[in-house]
From TrEMBL:
Protein name as catalogued: AAA domain-containing protein
Annotated Gene3D superfamilies: P-loop containing nucleotide triphosphate hydrolases
Domain of life: Bacteria
Lineage of producing organism: Bacteria, Pseudomonadati, Pseudomonadota, Alphaproteobacteria, Hyphomicrobiales
InterPro entries: P-loop_NTPase (IPR027417)
Amino acid sequence: MVHDLAACLPQRVEAWAFRTDIRFVEFFGLPGIGKTTASSRLADSLRRCGPLIGEVKVAWGRRTFIGRQINRVGIVVPRLMDRRFRSVIVRIARFVIQSGQESILDAVRVIWNFSVLVAFIENERSKSHSIVVMDQGLLQGFWSILLKSKRRTTSETWLEILSAIGIDDMVFVHLQGEMGLARDRLLTRDDRSSRMQRASPGSGPDLWSAADCACREMAADLGREMRAQDHAGALAMIDVERLATPEVVAERAFEKVLACLDRHRLSELADQRV
């Protein structure tokens, strides 16, 4: 597909064919649905486009646990001098506290993880043009908060905070599939990295139903928000069937992301002509 596109482009514009202001591709969906595998394979596919896309990074990369924590502190601390960054983190903290988490430790952990994520996004935005692929991002963070919230009434919504962080340069890829498929896949993992793995056995079915409902509601709300705004990033929906291989899912994501990049580029060109 990419080679066919490249062959049809004049030599002078080939290197910029799909380059837009899109800087982030973020995967979103139930734990176990295949976000990490799909994001890694998508990054490989985008890199094979070469100059058509530009530089492609995978968020965080591979680090030891200690290395990750040092890197996180190094990202957040300099950003604390930025008034806008502090304002966003205060809004996130208020949202987390008002939503009512299971414990103070849960609230602190979520606020810190969000602080790292927002600082990382701001850092990448300040660098030269590239596309960063994330298997865990802003939507997954808000999903985690909503999943454990005890109160749904807060002074502002997660969408308002998301808009304050900025979504104009983002493509959100929602991997949607049966919750039974995600649960079965997650149970084969032994890393205990997801709170769905750490949940008490008795809360299983209800927790998974709530998780699935939250994912679908968030994707629907974000889709409506993006349709109501101009240049508000993009949302790509990918169906994950039980028999679909990781390669098939990644290929679907690749095609959808390329289509999003092309639409964004054409929209930018139209604005430049006005």
